[in-house]
Design a protein that fits this description.
Elements (H helix, E strand, L loop, with lengths): L1 H26 L19 H6 L1 H12 L10 H10 L10 E8 L2 E6 L9 E4 L3 H14 L1 H9 L8 E9 L2 E6 L11 E4 L5 E3 L8 E2 L17 E3 L16 E2 L4 H6 L2 E2 L3 E5 L6 H16 L2 E9 L1 H14 L16 E3 L2 E3 L5 H6 L1 H5 L8 E7 L4 H21 L3 E7 L1 H14 L13 H9 L10 E7 L10 H7 L4 E4 L2 H5 L12 E2 H5 L15 H5 L5 H24 L1 H7 L6 H16 L8 H4 L8 H12 L17 H23 L3
Parallel strand pairs: 8-16, 12-18, 12-19, 13-16, 13-17, 17-18
Antiparallel strand pairs: 1-2, 1-6, 2-5, 3-4, 3-6, 4-5, 7-9, 10-11, 14-15, 19-20
Protein name: ATP synthase subunit beta
Function: Produces ATP from ADP in the presence of a proton gradient across the membrane.
EC number: 7.1.2.2
Length: 667
Amino acid sequence: MRTLLNRAAAAALWGRLAAASSSSCCSSSRSCCRVYPRRYFTSSTAAAATTAAAPSSSAAVAAAAGSKTPPPSTSAGAAAAAAAAGTGSGSGSGSIGRITQIIGAVVDVEFDGPLPPILNSLEVQLDAQQLQELQQEQQQQGQQQQQQQQGQQQQQPRLVLEVAQHLGDNVVRTIAMDSTDGLVRGQLVKDTGNPIMVPVGPNTLGRIINVIGDAVDGYGEINTKIKYPIHRPSPSFQEQSTEQSMLVTGIKVIDLMCPFIRGGKIGLFGGAGVGKTVLIMELINNIAKKYDGLSVFTGVGERTREGNDLYKEMIQSGVIKINKYLDSNKDNNTENNNIYINKKLDNKLIKKNKEIQENITFTGSKTALVYGQMNEPPGARARVALTGLCIAEYFREEEGKDILLFIDNIYRYTQAGSEVSTLLNRIPSAVGYQPTLSIDIGILQERITNINNKGSITSIQAIYIPADDLTDPAPSSLFYHLDTFIVLNRSISQLGIYPCIDPLDSSSRLLSSSINNNNNINNINNINNNNINNINNNNNNIIDNHYNICRYIQKLLQDYKSLQDIISILGIDELNEQDKQIIKRARKIQKFFSQPFSVAEVFTGIKGKFVDLDKTISSSSLIINGYLDDLPEAAFYMCGDIDEVKEKAIKMAKDLSSSSSSSSSPI
């Protein structure tokens, strides 16, 4: 009883203090009690309705100013704003709450009615008093700026909160998906009744999307009616395919040494400047051409500069195609790399004119970009990977396509989850990570798979190793989910070999799971011409030979690596014939693993090559068995299959003979 009386007395005292502070603030300038200028957030569905209700709301505020009744922002204004905001479709949708506490990215909201469930999204709304202030600020800014704001009214920012905890006393704790600077206590918050819903479908291709599904590329809103929640269950055991099939990428070193599993997870380890972006774009290009597949690139904790560079490079390489029209007559515009641009049609004009935005199409684009930049709060970085995965799931399930999902960087996903866990006052686990680290990673990874009689999602995830410590809980928790490891080595790139994938450090689970009983690498020496000719006709032999060839090449490259110190001291001439043969064949294999890329054709001048798996296996067999020992090393550099290597060798021999004959001729 005493506890109840103490709570009642404290509530009464708090009410008097709040009333006194509000009256003192209202009597003087309102800017005296704020550090940041107040930000106004509107929901995309309620922007027009809220603006239409502004005159009646402002009139109610003016009437309340001359009376002793409380302002409409606390009673009638809340109901008016709630009615203008519309209703949702989920449980408790349309409930209006008020912000009671703001601590960084954590916002506490109190509801009078039913509480929104965990993971529901809330949207910060405008109340009547805030609408009046917004109108006054617009009038002071002048007529020109007011017209520009009216033209961009539909792109007003909206702050989305995600429910994370129920604290009791009708209070929920939420995580903000954007900055909370300028937010004030007492501001209205509406329950949407659903998790965060993002647009999906073909109209997302070629666009840049943020964590809540809004387009941020300046080309207007995404015109689609299909929306998926970012929190979705993983496919059931009955839906998942149990067969492991190989996803041929057309890149020789990947298909031979570390093949991709269809519906698997690939870890990409590489530093800056080793060709990671070019490799990603080539994979997107090859999947689009070979399988008519699509790609989704998710930047988790991405630098804004790197994301912008990737976007521009994709436009230049044709992975993203932007069709800009000044009017419906296409013949009046000039064509340049599938981009129709009129001289008067610049990007600044596009972003201001909604009619021009409607005429822009992204037909032919093969990828969608989802960015959560590193300057955004942890809530956005912890959910942006789920947004990209949600877009990929639509193409897998509804259109039955093979999707490539790129996540850069998956470590930032776990890091953001650790920050959110700290904000929610959870007890940290080892090295300060969240206690739910394995669960958070598993929720994301288990949704990446292939489905029976439908498409697949193959994920390529860039992984950052903190302090090069592989025992760190974050990367070690990821290793259990990975099927393939790809390591980009800077020393190989210094040799001019691209892609600079290290065959010794890279591996794939598909090779070990596809072997037969005959797995002795010494049996590779018994391959004769008949086996090489029949390698394309016997599927069982392809798997066995693929494994044996891969292991033999690794042994060959390892022996060559161990001879490097002897070569640097004594030289090649001092080695025996067997070691010389190892060096000769290992160098040819290294050169053969280089490959021209289609996306780099504008820089190298060499047409890109897509090499089938059977040609890669047969060509590698010929090299390691000595059938091509008479060809020069330079003939293997930047070529496709072995036929192109022979043509290049013949051409080099002709050029050498012609140059020697011209030098020997008398002057």
